[in-house]
Design a protein that fits this description.
homodimer; about 80 residues; mainly alpha; 4 helices; 2 strands; about 10% strand; DNA-binding
Chain lengths: ~80, ~80
DNA sequence: CGGTATTATGCGATTTGCGGCATAATGATT
DNA sequence: AATCATTATGCCGCAAATCGCATAATACCG
């Protein structure tokens, strides 16, 4: 459900996965965000230098959010360790 | 422990909080990352257009990581709901 | 196969990030 | 208050992101 994003490549993959899961085209996302389809394409393919603001807009349009916390190896397996 | 970051401003606040918590100055962080103190200052103050790569470097230097998932209201309280 | 939607890519133009340096503003310590 | 550490700001220059448009490549469907 919640995915790790330590690089731009991972960010792109996550965005693409959720966009597809919601049945949206890059153009749809572009219309929602005011960005351009070409840019979204590049970002989904791991564009290293995308801006934070741009990413946030995309995430918001996809009803996603970003969280920041201490580094962990896995993401779901050791939730148990919290308790 | 893990904080929500829906905007560049929040990203900056989180970075600043963790930097201080680790007893580091902006200059210290700059040395670790190869970035400049001035840039870190601007990012901590919510620089909208910072690059994703730059943010990732800062997070890594602070032993933090970013995760992306569906939007939720609270962050810790309803972890219980997962089970 | 043919046509259409979707995604990827190249390019010129404009905007903007970031390096780099200087310095102002703020904060802490004595 | 004076000094020193830390953080914030302004400006220049270069590199790069984004725009905007065109179009190629690919996938989808009848």
């Amino acid at each position: 459900m919640t995915a790790l994003a330590r690089s731009a490549i991972q960010v792109g993959q996550i965005i693409q996965a959720h966009r597809k899961a919601q049945g949206l085209s890059q153009t749809d996302l572009a219309l929602r965000t005011g960005l351009r389809q070409e840019l979204i394409s590049r970002i989904e393919n791991g564009h290293e230098g995308a801006k934070v603001g741009t990413i946030c807009e995309l995430l918001a349009a996809l009803d996603l959010e970003m969280t920041i916390g201490p580094r962990t190896k896995s993401s779901a397996a050791d939730i148990r360790d919290i308790f």
